[in-house]
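Our preliminary data section would be incomplete without showing what the modeling component actually yields. Below, a chain of 565 amino acids is followed by its predicted structure, encoded as tokens that our downstream tools consume directly.
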Amino acid sequence: MSQNADPLTLALTGQLPFVILVASVVAFPCSLLLLWLYRRAVLRTMGRRSHVRGEGNRNTLHTGSHAAPTVGVGLKLRVEETGRVLKSPIYTCAQHGAWRAALIYGFAGVVFTLVMVMAVLVSGNMEVSVVRYLMVFWVYAWPVVLTVNFIAASTRRVMLMTGFIYFVILLLITSVAVARSTQLTLNQIVMLWTITNLPPTVLLFAFLARRIRAVGPMVLTFMVISATGSVIALAVAGANAGLLRIISNVGSSIGLSASATFIGIVIGGFLMFAGVGWLAVTWIRWGYQSKKLSDQSITLDALWVLFAISQSIGLVFEAPLWVLSGLAAFIAYKMTVWIGFRTVQAQQNSKTFNARLLLLRVFSLGKRSERLFDAITKRWRYAGSVQLIAGPDLATTTVEPQEFLEFLSGRISRLFIDGKAMLDSRMLQLDVKPDFDSRYRVNDFFCYDDTWEMVLSRLVEESDVVFMDLRGFSPQNAGCVRELTELINVVPLERVVLAIDDTTDYGFLENTITNAWDQVSADSPNIESSEVELRLFRLSRLGTQHIAGLVSALSSAVQGKDSPL
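Predicted structure:
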């Protein structure tokens, strides 16, 4: 290492980590607060009535009673515990798509790691041996595990298994390395892994937590840039005695103490760079809207940028330019991702699906809804898009960059459907094409109190399969009762899957379905069937087999999608 650290080295190794730390400390509570305010604004607006009056805003659900079912036609409820996994084309697309994406992103992470390992070995003039190279590579490859888990692991068990395999291999490599070296110790390797991976991992678990994942990367980007402005302002003022004197005199003239003047410099620098931070966030929105970025790639880019900074900072002590190794590694990562998905798309243009899934649920489930939503969409979004009516349970989970910025701009009402004309426009603009990484999007429909039934009726008719989460269903869920009635009237029931568990009031559910069936309308597609079966899927827990069975049930329920579109 260099014996004397120059100002640039000190800035990169001291101020840069400080900026990230400060930005993270500020960004986390800000993300929580902003999402709380966003959810509150959504709930408040949902409870209002639309300003548009006229036909089509309300009471558009089928009320039935025009004719009873033909004599002999019966409705049978079939309850499945875990369900058989039937490998239909859509199920295969959903299942393989997630792991294929994990393979591409993971391989790009390996390329990133190879660049960083070469930078570590070359900058330190280390003698390269196979065992040393493998050990350093495996230590630096930890974010690959995080990437694969984020993309493809739908349960905690899979995540833990992936991590377990990583550490077993690390232990094997460490054992060989320690046995072959008289100087290397287990404590040194543990310390290397801890210094290299623990700080960014802790930050990632904070900002990629389900509660703030949707906006965490954007808020952190804004805060890092703005906090950089504060550091630069202090550095410039401290390096220029004349400028510092002017600032002090101005502060004194308006009655500010020395401490208050210092705080003013910090705030001034923050505000100056806040504009740049806002431009960065709007660039993310532009990239998302133009499909150059996906919600998944935004999160993974944040992951790899954080590790790029963390892993390259220590190399600055060898020479300041080594900090660029992190940038080089990230560019190599992005190029590999782009090439990987372009290659896959070229091979699968004739095999793409868009199996449109409508997701309905009991809003009061809260975090339980979020967990099941994550588990299903990790698979399904590689086979088709997901449509849902925005509610309090998933309001902060599915928020998109443009929706969040509309809220920050005070224009959240623009997102809400206020009548048939706006619904028609929204349906024409529905995002049904996959992103560059072959993943379809979630389409939120924000509804007023007097427009949600109209939206539900339209979505039910234009979806390929309907999944309704009825865990926690009880007589208090009047909205779900109307949704069930609509499904029985409009949708062939072989395209409907209901989820239940021990918290479902099964007796009330059975009565609700029976009443809806007794009053089914004459034009219901279910009237023509000699025997109608409604599938209920019992979700006792969100295990791997349960999720696979549920995705298989949804796949087999899709009609007319057994061949590539």
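The first strand starts at residue 74 and ends at 80. Confidence is low (pLDDT under 50) at residues 63-73, 560-565. Preliminary results of this kind motivate Aim 1 of the renewal.
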